[in-house]
Design goal:
Length: 67
Amino acid sequence: MKFYSKVSLALCFLYSFSQTAHAYIDPETGSYSTQFLIAGLVVIAYVVKVYWKQIKSFYKKIFKKNK
């Protein structure tokens, strides 16, 4: 076995016997995660808007019917 596979096997073994963590996500973390998610969606929407003509022509070429 290679070194990395031995280490991953050992980590999987150790994590399988871990106890429950009594932790919470504070409001700042939840807010930050929400902002990050919304920003990602806005970026994706902007990229689609900018490249819409190229995306549309790409799919037209793929699904073009042969006459």
